[in-house]
């Protein structure tokens, strides 16, 4: 057999490497058009995603601007500057929180909720001390009485003393807990209801059935044991429930149980406020408390608090409910628990996180 090149059959127009036929020019043109269309579709998709991203960023920035506008044009906080070096983003602060059962048909300045909060921006930690409303207070310079009666008493003497009840409460609670109290905030229960409703309810685990009715003030508590999402009214009933007058009667509750439930609700609300849904509802939450809250925190300081503690971990919030012994009509506080609560407040102020060590920068 001859091996001469001239005797070999002519090559076809195929690929010289694999012998496969190459596409003709028309086929190549069609293939290029498909590739162009594919790249065009991907480019359009990329532009769409980029556009949506830009819109989302603008929406977030616009919402942040809206919140700042609400602060600047609303009645949130005191319209005066924060003292130099006292920004909540730079130094620890303490806040007295009071909850009153003040309603249009039932005016009252008795404080059913008494809490003191210490916040530290360096350690991103907080302590919340809650005291029973019937706590017996024996303090030099003050009449011996229940702790929930002091605010009402100071309020009734404002005109003659010339001192705001909130300032008197800061001084008194500062002496009681051995700390300086920077601010006081008073929220009536309607504000509490509205905040919970604006956040879409609050998740709790009801430990016992609760039933109580009062036709005079319209109270109608009827809660069933187990996990539940409560609206504002039911959440308030859950926090305030004391005893039952129903048939059959449900288990009674004392000040200590109520304090535990207050902390449970507060902890749940913190989580909901930090969620995306909570973030988008801040404006409505501010509206909810606008007419039901009194505070001496500066407007700019409220912004500082929100920016400094918005992402605080719930694990870094130490709840210290103080208990004691009930001997009608008072609760006699457990001294060891009170000292532990004071120490926790001092630790936050000193820059010691829960279970941690002091922050060197504080």
Question: In short, what is this structure?
Answer:
The protein is of the alpha+beta class and 362 residues long. Helix 2 packs antiparallel against helix 4. The relative contact order is 0.15.
Textual characterization of the structure:
This protein has 362 residues and is of the alpha+beta class. Helix content is 42%, strand content 20%. Strands 11-6-1-2-3-12 form a six-stranded mixed β-sheet, with helices on both faces. The longest helix is centred in the first third of the chain and has 49 residues, at 25-73. Residues 1-19 and 51-66 have low confidence and may be disordered.
Largest sheet: 6 strands, mixed
Sheet with the most strands: spatial strand order:
11-6-1-2-3-12
Summarize model confidence as the mean pLDDT.
81
**Mass-distribution shape:** globular
The total of beta strands comes to 14
């Amino acid at each position: 057999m001859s091996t001469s090149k001239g005797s070999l059959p002519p090559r076809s127009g195929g690929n010289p490497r694999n012998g496969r036929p190459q596409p003709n020019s028309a086929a190549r043109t069609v293939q290029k058009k498909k590739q162009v269309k594919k790249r065009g579709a991907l480019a359009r998709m990329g532009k769409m995603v980029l556009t949506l991203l830009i819109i989302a960023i603008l929406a977030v920035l616009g919402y942040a601007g809206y919140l700042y506008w609400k602060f600047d044009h609303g009645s949130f906080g005191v319209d005066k500057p924060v003292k130099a070096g006292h920004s909540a983003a730079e130094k620890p602060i303490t806040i007295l929180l009071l909850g009153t059962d003040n309603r249009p048909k039932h005016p009252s300045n008795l404080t059913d909720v008494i809490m003191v909060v210490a916040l530290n921006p360096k350690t991103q930690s907080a302590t919340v001390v809650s005291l029973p409303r019937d706590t017996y207070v024996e303090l030099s310079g003050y009449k011996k009485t229940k702790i929930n009666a002091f605010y009402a008493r100071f309020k009734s003497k404002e005109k003659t003393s010339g001192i705001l009840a909130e300032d008197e409460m800061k001084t008194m609670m500062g002496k009681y807990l051995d700390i300086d109290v920077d601010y006081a905030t008073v929220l009536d229960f309607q504000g509490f209801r509205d905040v919970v409703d604006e956040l879409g309810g609050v998740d709790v685990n009801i430990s016992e059935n609760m039933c109580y009715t009062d036709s005079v003030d319209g109270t109608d508590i009827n809660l069933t044991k187990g996990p539940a999402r409560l609206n504002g009214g039911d959440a308030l009933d859950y926090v305030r429930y004391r005893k039952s007058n129903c048939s059959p009667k449900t288990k009674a509750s004392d000040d200590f149980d109520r304090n535990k439930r207050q902390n449970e609700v507060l902890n749940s609300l913190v989580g909901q406020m930090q969620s995306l849904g909570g973030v988008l509802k801040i404006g409505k939450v501010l509206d909810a408390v606008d007419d039901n809250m009194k505070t001496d925190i500066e407007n700019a300081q409220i912004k500082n608090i929100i920016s400094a503690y918005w992402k605080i971990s719930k694990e870094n919030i130490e709840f210290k409910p103080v208990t004691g012994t009930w001997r009608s009509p008072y609760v006699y506080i457990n001294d060891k628990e009170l000292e532990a609560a004071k120490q926790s407040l001092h630790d936050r102020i000193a820059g010691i996180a829960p279970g941690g060590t002091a922050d060197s920068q504080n």
